[in-house]
Amino acid sequence: MDAKEVIARRVALELRDGMLVNLGIGLPTLVAAYVPDGMHVAFQSENGIIGFGAPPPQGMEDPNLTDAGGGFISALPGAIAFDSVTSFALIRGGHVDMTVLGGLQVDSKGRLANWMVPGKIVPGMGGAMDLVTGAKRVIVAMQHSAKGAPKIVEELTLPPTAARRVSLIVTELAVIEPTEDGLALRERAPSVEIEEIIANTGAKLSIPAHVPEMAFIAG
Amino acid sequence: MDAKEVIARRVALELRDGMLVNLGIGLPTLVAAYVPDGMHVAFQSENGIIGFGAPPPQGMEDPNLTDAGGGFISALPGAIAFDSVTSFALIRGGHVDMTVLGGLQVDSKGRLANWMVPGKIVPGMGGAMDLVTGAKRVIVAMQHSAKGAPKIVEELTLPPTAARRVSLIVTELAVIEPTEDGLALRERAPSVEIEEIIANTGAKLSIPAHVPEMAFIAG
Amino acid sequence: MRKAITAGEAADLIPDGASVMFGGFLGVGSPERLFDALAARGAKRLTIIGNDTARPGVGVGKLIDAGCVTRIIASHIGTNPTTQKKMIAGEIDVELVPQGTLAERIRAGGSGLGGVLTPTGVGTTVAEDKRVLEIDGADYLLEAPIRADFALLHAHEADYFGNLTYRLTAANFNPVMAFAADCVIAESDHIVPVGVIPPDAVRTPGVLVNHLVGRAC
Amino acid sequence: MRKAITAGEAADLIPDGASVMFGGFLGVGSPERLFDALAARGAKRLTIIGNDTARPGVGVGKLIDAGCVTRIIASHIGTNPTTQKKMIAGEIDVELVPQGTLAERIRAGGSGLGGVLTPTGVGTTVAEDKRVLEIDGADYLLEAPIRADFALLHAHEADYFGNLTYRLTAANFNPVMAFAADCVIAESDHIVPVGVIPPDAVRTPGVLVNHLVGRAC
Predict the structure, then answer these.
(1) Which residues, other chains included, contact D90 with Cβ-Cβ below 8 Å and sequence gap of 6+?
(2) Which helix (H) or strand (E) holds C179?
(3) Where exactly are the structural domains of chain B?
């Protein structure tokens, strides 16, 4: 398993039957491949659909059926389409059970930064601010470090996406839960030592006596 | 012509091609019968339809197709249905060109009272407050007096429906326009003397040198 | 997937004292079987939230008749003399809300907004005790969001994901209420297999609906 | 009834300096023929309002390419490097708005509301210079309504009353924008006779639409 697969398969463990889930573009979309057998999870794409599936066979794409990244998708039985106002009424209104988003930084207060790097890239927040504010659970799925620098930091140096404390951080090294008292290490990846996690984390971690190894959804 | 027909046929003169019009329950609904030939006016009913027509033949009523008074209606070609949120986005958003409403009182500031009589009847405002606030033009269609007492008064004694000055008052005696400077007599009904209008009006009327006789849409 | 329950089972989920939104405009588009079941089980002290109270024996009027209701939030009660009588007798407390404001307050409650800024009601009794904000030279009332414990809906078609369609003027307050209650119960004319309703025809996302009420009770 | 006009005639209605809302999400559901016509007539100093700026050569990206735009209100511009370049060069002014807030601000502009009270953006740079209202213990940003001189829509079907339908994810911002502009121009895949679209299938009331653009230009 490479880092991305570790993250996606661990995040998939957070899925529950009947959930409405919004997956961010990039790494988070990989989670859709690991829905446990027999579980029904509805995926929303904020451009206006619930219940989409994998890209259709080549030549069968519909220019009016795309995900929030602009990629062609298919419609599963029971799929529904709606406009942007409805889409964000669902998101901001707390009707999305879980969102999985990539991150540039998370700090000790559990605040996420994932929408811009001042002076470098200003893509815009798209739907991220609404998702982090409104979804019942916010899972940050990201690599633990970027070019050797920790992405989990004491205090954000990048502009926050929302004031809200995210629910869980899943990296290829660890599962970390932001709590009222700071960041708590919950799980470590197989064959990863706690010291390695600490060394790659730029914020104080509270470490319980027993840190279990990550479990995964089967690939 | 009885009083109601006088009022309805005079109000119909205010219709313009392409207008979206909301008619209140009671007297105002009579206006729909006097749309000039060749003119297309779309009627909205705030319970959720644009483009309704006369009641269908007996036995052909649809329990899901009614007007805001609960009466059965028909759907004309091009009719559309929508929910209450959309209906009032249209009304409050200024998309309704004209509303015709009944009145209990109108005062010298042009304020309408038509939704309750304290201690007597408290039916509720329904959609009236939104209509008077949001429609581009508000026409009050009412009998000039109630049991001998003027309904056009210096200052409302009943609770106002909105702060907004209505556009026009049409009664069986006169057409009166509320202006910044008070109420102005614009037209008199056929064979009605100006003195009779003044005698039946509880507010000061400005009377121009020439007060033309009402015109009507043909019956 | 949800299995359909009976109207009686649905009524048993709704405790005395609950707040209950209901679809319907003068009874059109109202969940009649749910009202019948609530009246039959003798529900008490309900707060009901809807456009109007229909007429005696019709729509939510059945709950008024049966003495299930002690509080009403509505835009209009003029068509139901029983409501008027009980209000005057002090048995029912009534809050009257302009129809468009009622729709927006429920929408705010269901879509995570902090309130509604509406010009409707400024300068009237509706504005009493409310904050007025001046924005760009015009006055707007700050109206509070409305949510309820339950929303009782009437739909035309439902599928077993809970996706709903409505017919003509029977939609009215049903779609917006689906967003604004902790538990949403939908009664429909038909229940169809998943995949039968085209994606663009669905007007209430099934993810909002907790229970479907089957055709036969 | 409205007669269809050509995309060129529509483009001639839109003066330089106008504010223009447009439907589309990364170009999906965008009025491509109207963009082509605006670029062809060499429109200047437009303010454009929409979810994103698609990609060079695609959707509204064509207007960016052609130098028609000096101001953008959008939620995302990351997919269009030309937008980024012109922003950095100071040729285009960009206001970034969270996607849900953008939808609600346009909705407020079209439905007579004084603003939007949203929790989104609280504690971020989006909140700078904005009023924050505390309501029931939580903070909400007061976001201003957005309207435009023109709304350029893409629909699936139109009838000659202007009633519109949309397909799947091509709806996005189109329906809400139909309410929020002084002049609404709709380009559609098909124009059908009045009476052909069922009343419950219409998603934009024709009374909102000023001009239809015919299939052939």
Answers:
(1) none
(2) none
(3) 3-206
**What domains can be seen in chain C, in order of their start residue?**
7-113+146-212 (3.40.1080.10)
pLDDT, one tens digit per residue, over B43-99 is: 999 999 999 999 999 999 999 999 999 999 999 999 999 999 999 999 999 999 999
What is the predicted pLDDT for the residue at B122?
Answer: 85
What's the pLDDT tens digit per position in C15-38? 999 999 999 999 999 999 999 999
Catalytic annotation on B46? yes
Give the rounded percent of residues in chain A with a pLDDT score beyond 90.
Answer: 95
Helix (H), strand (E) at residue A161: none
Of D60, D16, D79, the residue nearest D173 (C-alpha): D60
Other beta carbons within 10 angstroms of residue C201's beta carbon come to: 17
What is each CA distance from D60 to B162, B209, D64, in whole angstroms?
42, 59, 7
Q: Is D99 on the interface with C (CB under 8 A)?
A: no
B 65-94 residues with CB < 8 A to C? 65-70, 75, 81-85, 87-88, 91-92
CB contact under 8 A, D113 and C114: no
* The two structure tokens encoding residue D204: 């934009």
CA angle A183-A186-A188, nearest 5°?
115
Instruction: Give me the CATH code for the B3-206 domain, please.
Output: 3.40.1080.10
Task: From D157, C33, C169, select the one nearest B79 (Cα to Cα).
Answer: C169
DSSP string, D70-124: EEEEESB-TT-HHHHHHHHTTSSEEEE--HHHHHHHHHHHHTT-S-EEESTTTTS
The 10s digit of each residue's pLDDT in D188-201 is: 999 999 999 999 99
Taking CB atoms and an 8 Å limit, are D202 and B20 in contact across chains? Answer: no
Supply the pLDDT for residue A119: 83
